[in-house]
Every structure is written in C-alpha cells, then in structure tokens.
Design goal:
Helix content: 25-40%
Low-confidence stretches: none
Strand order of the largest sheet: 12-11-8-13-16-17-18-19
Bound molecules: cytidine-5'-triphosphate
Largest sheet: 8 strands, mixed
Number of strands: 19
C-alpha cells in the first residue's frame, strides 16, 4: 500500500457532513496524510474540532486568515494536495465549481490546485434529479473530475431515492482501493465476527462484550485485498463493509451452520467471533419467573467452529484469534497446536486497554514457524498486517516473513 498519499478533504454544508470524520479516519487508516478544509456552511453541521481530532491537523476555513497563511497558506495547500475530495459536495458547491468561483477557501483551492479532484455529491432527491445539477456534473466529468455516488436510500428530508452521500467506506475504497495490493485476488475468505447469544428464555441470554469491530475490519481489509468475502456475524451494531456478503446469526450453533454452508469453497477461514463456549441445557419458551431463592442454570458445551473447520477433509487456511487476559502468548500457542490451525492472533482483552470494544489493538501472530509481534494499530491497520501474513503463509511464502515493519 502506498503510504502518505496527500489528500485534502473538502467538507461543504450538507447534513452528510456528519459522515466526513469517518471518511477522514478511513483515508488515514489506509495510510493517507489528510488535511481538511471546511466551508462556512459545513461548520453549521459539524465542528472543525471534530475534524481536527480525526485528521490530527488544524482545519482550514478562511481564505484570508493570517494565522493559517503563516502556517500552510492556501497556495501551499493547493500545491501540497495530490488529491482533493469534496465530501459531501452540495448542489451549490458543485455549481460554484462549474462556474470556476474563487469566493471561499475551498473553491479557491479547487481552482488553484493541479491535484486530481473527486466529488461525493449529497443532496435532496429533487435537487439531484434537476437538469441544472445533472448538466453541472457532466461539465465536471468532462473536466476530469471524478464523481463518486450518490447512493440511494432514505434522506434527511424524509424522501427516498438517489442523492445521499456514498458511505465513507465506499468513498475511501474508490479513492484508494487501487493502491491496495491484491494479495487475496480471487480468494474466498469466510470470517466469523462478534459475540454469540445463547438464549436462556425469550428475554435473557448468555453473551459477551465482543463488539465485532475486529472481524468487520478484517472483512473490509480482505475485500480491499481483492477477496470475495463472506462475513458470518453474531448480534452487533455495525454496518457490513460494502461488497461483503453478510450473514447474521444469533447462537453458536447457528454460526456453525452458516459457516458450514459457505466454507466449502473457502481459501481462508478466519474465526474472530467470541463464540460462547457453553449454552443453557434448555432455552425456556416463556420468560422465567423468580419463584425460588436459588436457581441453577445447567450449561452444555457449544461446538467449536474453528476446530470443526480445521478438521475438515480439505480445510481452508485457518486463522484463529486467542482472546486472553493472562499468559497470552503461551495460551495462544497451545490453541494453535490443539486446534490444528495454521495461524493464531493473540490478543490481550484484559484491562481498560484491552481489545474488546476498543478501536486500537496490539497483537502477536503465532504460526508453526514462529511468532511475529504487531505494533499497536487501529483495527483496519492491524487487519492489513494480519492478512499480509496470512496471505504469505497461505501461499507457502513463510520464509519471507519478518517482524512488523512498524514495530519498534
Ligand atoms: N472459537 C470457535 N468456536 C468456539 C470457541 C472458539 O470458533 N466454540 C474460535 C474463536 O473464534 C477464536 C478461537 O476459537 O478464533 C479461540 O477462541 P477463544 O475463546 O480464545 O478460545 P477457546 O477455544 O474458547 O478457549 P478458552 O475459552 O478456554 O480460552
């Protein structure tokens, strides 16, 4: 992946501006150096402080700002950018671009820069369908501006149809997808993610704190590596990455059934789910009432999905995760051998800094040939490293493996 591609994100005044921080984060995760310019109207929807926090740099807002000009001035910024993406791009801003206006900082930068330019339009359905907008976009396309989206769906104004901004994940993929090495081109990757829910009765169950973020980040990275991805997910509050086939399940037994239905032609299987090891002996059909002082809950073992896949006749390359609170590497190594899998990622889930629900993670990869410590990355960055290693081992290139280049 090419690092440090210099991207200027322009945010204009539409409700979709609430998605801009997510876009900045995703571009940065993929190795881009991101700076943000906001129009005055954009600041009505989202604060510059939020975008400063996610980009790690002050947000540029004014054309004639002496403080900003003494730092990175507008001409310098125009020269710095290799790519300018305006997301959201309102109908008004698009019209201003067509007219070649230079009446605020962002419009001036677009005019003054030789960078590649992309817009992600976001507007009400009628505005999108209006001939004026369509012609404006044609004019921009003729000038080489890339138009990403818009997507169809529910809009803030209550209407449904085309006009909403494409999801940040999709925009990032369109802008930087080509920069990702296609290490898993044509491979089928099946993943499990999230917790499972083992019902005690219709309102209660046994579950755990897994957020699903690691499995979803791995699914996204596998897709970026060119794989066809099937994501079997327990109950989580996450949107599946675009282009990934998602199968929602509740219990461990449902998860195993879904995995067995899809793993037949898989090249890689990655078990990230925090599968409940036990389930209640019976799940009551109606809510259990509190009658007695004491109540005993009988539990039985759930199937081990990862072990089942690894024991198949012609198994895919299997990767497990070891969620541990202590003796992390030791426990991970014994799981690697015991479950007869090809690789395991040892994760510290203990303490406040642990992996569950966190956006950052530290981990060590164990495989039969050795151990590779990975430096603390966000979950997408960690996913990229994990998949690079998995892809090498899967192709039998273990000799080329070295420690994480980012590890200090
Ligand atoms: N796993 C699985 N099915 C299970 C339990 C675990 O597929 N029933 C997978 C997980 O997705 C993970 C790996 O096995 O990739 C290790 O999970 P973990 O919970 O750390 O280990 P367990 O095997 O459950 O062992 P223990 O709970 O005793 O540490």
């Amino acid at each position: 992946m090419r690092k440090n591609r210099r991207i200027l994100v322009g945010v204009t005044g539409g409700i979709a501006a609430y998605k801009s921080p997510d876009l900045v984060r995703r571009l940065a995760e993929r190795g881009a150096d991101v700076r943000v310019v906001m129009t005055e109207a954009a600041c009505e929807f989202i604060t510059p402080l939020t975008l400063q926090a996610v980009s790690g740099h002050p947000v540029h807002r004014h054309l004639l700002d002496t403080d900003a000009e003494s730092g990175m001035g507008h001409i310098e910024l125009a020269r710095w950018a290799e790519l300018i993406v305006i997301a959201p791009a309102t109908a008004n801003f698009i019209a201003r671009m067509v007219g070649g206006k230079a009446d605020d900082l962002l419009a001036t930068l677009v005019l003054a820069s030789g960078a590649e330019i992309a817009v992600a339009p976001a507007m009400n359905l009628q505005m999108w369908q209006n001939e004026a907008t369509r012609k404006n976009l044609d004019r921009l396309r003729e000038r080489g501006v890339r138009v990403i989206g818009p997507a169809e769906g529910g809009q803030a104004c209550g209407e449904t149809g085309p006009g909403r901004m494409s999801e940040p994940d999709q925009i990032a993929q369109e802008l930087l997808g080509d920069a990702t090495p296609k290490l898993l081109a044509d491979a089928h990757v099946v993943l499990t993610a999230g917790p499972t829910w083992e019902a005690i009765d219709p309102v209660r169950g046994i579950t755990n704190h897994s957020s699903g973020k690691m499995g979803f980040a791995l699914a996204e990275a596998a897709r970026d590596f060119g794989a066809r991805v099937t994501l079997v997910s327990g109950p989580v509050h996450l949107e599946a990455p675009a282009g990934v086939t998602r199968i929602d399940v509740i219990s461990a037994r449902d998860m195993l059934e879904a995995v067995e239905a899809h793993v037949g032609d898989a090249d890689l299987f990655i078990g990230v789910a925090a599968v409940s090891d036990y389930r209640p002996v019976r799940s009551e059909g109606s809510k259990i009432k509190k009658n007695d002082e004491k109540m005993e809950l009988g539990l039985v073992r759930n199937p081990d999905i990862l072990r089942t896949v690894a024991a198949m006749d012609n198994p895919p390359f299997t990767v497990g995760f070891a969620a541990e609170t202590d003796r992390i590497d030791e426990n991970a190594k014994s799981k690697l051998e015991d479950k007869r899998i090809d690789m395991i990622v040892a994760n510290d889930v203990g303490g406040e800094d642990g992996a569950f629900g966190n956006d950052h993670n530290r981990a060590t990869v164990h495989h039969p040939g050795g151990a590779i410590p990975l430096e603390r990355h966000d979950k997408y960055g960690l996913s990229v490293r994990i998949l690079e290693i998995a892809a090498s081992l899967w192709r039998g290139e273990s000799a080329g493996l070295t420690a994480d280049p980012d590890a200090s």
